Amino acid sequence: MLYLFVGLKLPIVALGLIVWWAVRQEPEPGETEGGDGGQRTRPHAPPSLPRPPRRGPHGDPAPLPPPRTRKVTARARQLDR
Questions:
Q1: Cis peptide before 43 (omega within 30 of 0)
Q2: Which of 13, 35, 58 is nearest to 5 (CA)?
Q3: How far apart are CA 11 and CA 19, in angstroms?
């Protein structure tokens, strides 16, 4: 039981200490303030969606739709009493 009460809490405490250390970390002197924040100079254009389907090298036609099915209405069973 001691293992369950203490041993399993140690990774949580270690994670808390690592996060606390990272938050309190001072920036390195070589880092410059400002900059572009990591953005590229020219943003990419958004992709055109949806992408057309691939039909093969000879322009195969679109596949046929599946056959239609009729709805089946279930009837309630009548219990013989």
A1: no
A2: 13
A3: 12
* 15-32 residue pLDDT tens: 999 999 999 988 777 665
**Structure token digits, residue 32:** 């410059």
Report residue 33 as tokens. 């303030």
Q: Measuring CA to CA, which residue among 17, 63, 39, 47 is closest to residue 9?
A: 17
Residue 61's nearest CA partner among 53, 71, 69 is 53
User: How many C-beta atoms surround the C-beta of residue 37 within 10 A?
Assistant: 5
- What global pTM score does this model have? 0.34
The helix (H) or strand (E) run that includes residue 19 is helix 10-23
